Amino acid sequence: MRSVTREQAIAYRLSVNHLVDRLPPGSQEQAAYVGLQDTAPRDALLGMAARMAGCVPGDWEHPSLIQTYSPRQAVYVLPARDFGVFTLGRLPLDQDAVRRIDSLADHVCDVLAGEERRGANIHGLRAACASGRIALRWDTTSLYVREVPRPAIDVREAHRELCRRHLRYFGPTTPKVYAWWSGLSPADARAVWNELADELLEVDFAGVPAWILATAESDLHEAPPPVGVRLLVASDLRLLGRDREARFIAPGLRKLTPAADTFHPNALLINGQPTAAWGRKGARVDVVLSQQLTQDQYDALHAEVAALPLRNPQLSVRIGACQSQPTVPVVRSGRTSSVVGRSIGVRSRRRRPSS
């Protein structure tokens, strides 16, 4: 059995999720290939900017994309042509349960009466999204709901393709992790997983059994250590392993930097390592460092902020309270303003949905 270290897994995940080398401009669909969680404030857009060069503020509603609820009630941005994979692929295997979801979808569609409706207060809306007949449009202030044609993909193939994507982009992984991510019951997740048995390769992942797609073996073992700077939103930090053992994308909010808090749930990655926490309000990006950066790293951070799809972004950088060294001056770069050593007040906020 081949062995995989945590460092190899992280390098592989960051690489296949385009978080080391960016996709070219106009690759919205590929950037959203396994879904982008759109937690406020517009995390799907910022997640796309981390994956694709030239991202602009309107890319979250590009015609190639569509939105719906995930099993854990967060809105996701998805490739429109793969809508069936992410909806029908999450249907339970029990046909009575499927009929209950279809009944809820019938009710939602009756309420909509062929029109897009503003508001989420429709009975059964979240569960009905698994039917593939309900799409959303969320602009961070209002939710709009509309009926769409049920995807033509065979449900069984949708199940298999969803599982393949999970393995390809989040491996090494396990059936238990797949159940959490997909929203399927553990028994259903295992049944779908077993259908792919001939496509899987078991590995020893830092001392525990896990699986990858057999076709990804060389990519996993040959992925170079990540190099460069990326501003990752909280949902993408699962790639680093946020469970207790820091292996899988399973549930958990393991703190990755000492500076992380409810206002700074995101992380600045430098060469694949979380080096700072960050958050934003409007166009202001507030970075709290856990260690000092070199001048080259500051310049790279400036370039990252300047490239964010925000109108006139501003950067505030400071050393966290647990650090004693003074803040190093930040060099101006492009459209980005420098706000040195200035703290943004941390207010108590609701915990984000773990989805």
Brief overview:
This protein is α+β, with helices and mostly antiparallel strands and about 350 residues long.
Draw up the topology in text.
Elements: E1 2-4, H1 6-16, H2 28-31, E2 36-37, H3 43-51, E3 65-69, E4 75-79, H4 83-87, H5 95-112, E5 117-118, H6 125-128, E6 134-138, E7 143-147, H7 155-170, H8 175-182, H9 186-195, E8 200-205, E9 208-213, H10 217-222, E10 229-232, E11 266-270, E12 273-281, E13 284-289, H11 295-307, E14 314-319, E15 337-340
Parallel strand pairs: 1-8, 13-14, 14-15
Antiparallel strand pairs: 2-4, 3-4, 5-7, 6-7, 8-9, 10-11, 11-12, 12-13
What is the distance, rounded to the nearest whole angstrom, between the alpha carbons of the first and last residues?
Answer: 32 Å
Radius of gyration: 21 Å
Share of helical residues: 25-40%
What's the total helix number? 11
Structural class: alpha+beta
Strand content: 15-25%
| Number of distinct beta strands | 15
Strand count, sense and barrel status of the largest sheet are: 6 strands, mixed
Listing every helix as H and every strand as E from the N terminus to the C terminus, the arrangement reads EHHEHEEHHEHEEHHHEEHEEEEHEE
Low-confidence stretches: 322-354
Q: What average pLDDT do the residues reach? A: 89
Q: What topology, given as strand order, has the largest sheet?
A: 10-11-12-13-14-15
Principal-axis shape equals globular
